[in-house]
Amino acid sequence: MPLRIEDYGLIGDCETAALVGRDGSIDWLCWPAFDSDACFAAILGDARNGRWLIAPAAKVTKSSRHYWDNTLILETRFETADGIVALVDFMPPRGTASDVVRLVRGVKGRVKMRMELVIRFGLGADIPWVRRTEDRSAVLAICGQDMTVLRTPVETRGENMTTVADFVVSEGETVPFVLTYGPSHLAVPEPINPAVALDETEAFWTDWSSQCNHEGEHRALVVRSLITLKALTYDPTGGIVAAPTTSLPEKLGGERNWDYRFCWLRDATFTLLALMNSGYTGEASAWHNWLLRAVAGAPANMQIMYGIMGQRRLLEWEADWLPGYQGALPVRIGNAAHAQLQLDVYGELSMPCIRPASPISSSTRIPGRWNAPCWIILPKSGIIPTTASGNGEERAGTTFSQKS
Question: pTM for the full model?
Fold first, then answer.
């Protein structure tokens, strides 16, 4: 049974993101990108659909969690009758491979811990082959195009299609776990140093947060919100996803369960305004370049949304093997709303372009660049279609405008 949505914390590397439960279980992760199939999909089903649990073996009497200041490093503390342990979760800035690092730190006493890794590629459906590397330094899980590599000094074993470990952490000790993704046809990714990765991740986010120009009594809350928005950016292209998840319902038990792992132009403009108002112009310029590539060739046919790489056909289908978050069905992959016409998008898209001193408005005037505001504002033929969808993305068209 998945936790309440508010009981999950977000970690990410600006190419994908994971949801970490208050119980120490990673219940959602699409790898290697936001729109990839999930290898942990327990949030839309149960543990059999993939998760990664690290938690005390004994009863937890109290738990708490927080992000390290000005970072996306999440720390969860567990208290038991035997002591206190901290679980530090993060994803380092992407290098040659993508990593999830989990550090188990002894705070007080000696605490018995349990690790359960259930890899289920293909959105919780595909059980991989699992084996150790020849030097026995890592555990490989391979299925189709996907491969994960688990490295830890703790002895692991297989139980019921699950990689498990039982270990003890004492005060002052740190036990690392690193899970790395790589394409199955390539060599096993090189190991990283977890301690160095922690320092680099903290430095990355601290430096980024320091660029915020917002001052005032709520600065800490503003920075925390900006970090979350930054985590939704796809660094290789500049695209910005609406959310890192699919099929979390608008209403518990309802049917409005959409895949939000794509780039809505409307949502992105509001994200950009928040970033630019706080001094972040690099993300705005990157998104502008993403948009120009996405609409290139036929800007008059601009869609309301695209994939993170600028994909246009986001075909929608249902993953019928997943029971959905707390029974909310169906679980949808892809989004048919990409074919809708929503006239409000044109106005919202113009806002960051006409904003004074906007990096978008200035960059569109560089010689050799397409003049984006022209095709946003000027209609191609003076004809506005009579049928369009509202911003609620109802699946039946509603009449809003007539021929102008």
Answer: 0.90
